[in-house]
Amino acid sequence: MNGADSRTAAEIGWNYLDRQAAILVLRVDGAGKILAANSYARELTGLPLCAGSLGDLLIASTQAAELQRWLTPSAEPRLMNVRTADALSQTLYVTSVQLGAELLLFGQADPQEQERLRREFLALNQELTALGRELALANAELVRASALKNKFVGMASHDLRKPAGLILNLAELLLEDPAVNQSAQACEIIERIISSAGCMGVLIDDFLDITMIEADRLSLDIQVVAQDGLVATALNLVQVAAVQRGVAMKILLDQSGVKLRVDGPKIVQVLTNLLSNAIDYSPEGSCITLGSQQQADGIRFWVEDQGDGLDQEQQQRLFEAFSGLGGTKPSGERSIGLGLAIVRKIVAAHGGSCFVESQRGCGSRFGFLLPPDCQAASRDSRPL
Amino acid sequence: MATKTLITESIYEQYLAALLQGDRPGCSHIVQDSSAAGAEVKDLYVNLFQRSLYQVGDLWEQHRISVAVEHLATAITERVMTIVQPKLFSGAARERSIIVACVADEYHQLGGRMVADLAELHGWRGFFLGANTPLEALLQMIDQQKPDLLGLSQSVYFNLAGLVKALDAVSGTFPGLPVMVGGQAFRPRWGDTSWLRGYCNVRPVITLEELERELSNDERG
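The joint structure predicted for all components is written out below.
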């Protein structure tokens, strides 16, 4: 044997097509039965193909309708979307030749189309990563701006707290001074100063609270406390405001003696904020109800008023900070809209959630649900 | 680079192997682990990303890997670079800015992106315009942002005509603007940089190590 290849050029060519070429080659009979398939066709489809049907290659939904078309010979390349082993499909441009009773099919991908696809995907990836870079930068700037804002609000609020407290104390001293409190007009003015300084103090406290919360510095001091004690403390804190506004308050706890595992002062702050809001928005002579109910998914607290109620649009943004900015309470006071944002953050820190149920003209019910792990065994509670 | 590297030879070899196999999760893990272990962004950029991509480029040039493998390696590198982005941007105000771009018909943008990122780390605002930036868009951006420096990245040497056109236009329109050019196209065995001397405001800064030195010297004033 001298090593010379005795095969004909046609045999070598067919051998190449059968084993190596990235071209699909099929021999099918008049009914679409596959008589032979080359290696590329089998690898592409992941099917043995021989003795199978040409329809097996086609996308399932079009098999029956399409099969007949492919059994007609065509020298013009026709687009065939072939099912592939990786469950994606592949587009081949297929020509076919009639050889007696058999049909010979050749199919290949369009290299220009593939090149365009590759180029576009690369460009797309580049654009996305460049956009991602811009987003990361913008995000870093926003985070920094937000932190600076929190710092400024915190510092400003802290610095304002002292003079606001001083105004309040001095005005209260003046009211007790016989040289001043002889005049009814002077007393009225001083009482207005006291009331305004009190409001300013609440506002400053809200700013400080929200600043701490936004800066992720809200830490909970979890203790076992009595539900009744929390409710009583909150009611005491808003009692004067309720009397001044001529609003009655009713308690509706479904069970007394319940113990909670919560940060007591912060839950009191939540209840106080909800009660204060209800008082602010209640008409004179109406009644506010503070209730609680134990449920399978936790313990639910709510404050119900007989005010004007809220429409859907108002309800959607209620628990966001500054959602009430620019609004005016029925008392004429401006609303900043921090109270409910603070409520939401404190409740969320306990793993709970807030809700509002309201209809225009039918009052509102604001509340929150604390998860079951906020309930404690009914021993070992400490007074608030 | 003068700073101590945490990218050991073993880490590099593992990363390169994953990169050549198109193993995106594998590359991500190596970058995440190295970053968590304290590797600085500069260290990752120079000793992992730049080094591996230079090697991928060499393998491509020697016909030892396909174009598809090279493109996939580039795309994976672009993706894993985003892992260290939180370390990159401080959000602080910047006094100086640099625009980095690849000129028209230059489709390899990774080097340019690394330049913009390293400039950020050195206190610059790094505007990155990406691959294949049309000349008009580049000139418009310079006019709008008025940067202190322009960086043009070139990876393919036989594509220098686009760079020459851009340098002519930039030098003519913004004669006072300093320009830095660099990238794989200027690595020693490719092209020389002597022709850049024809532009008075243009200087070559070929590698990330050189860029680091330039930026560090600049900081020291």
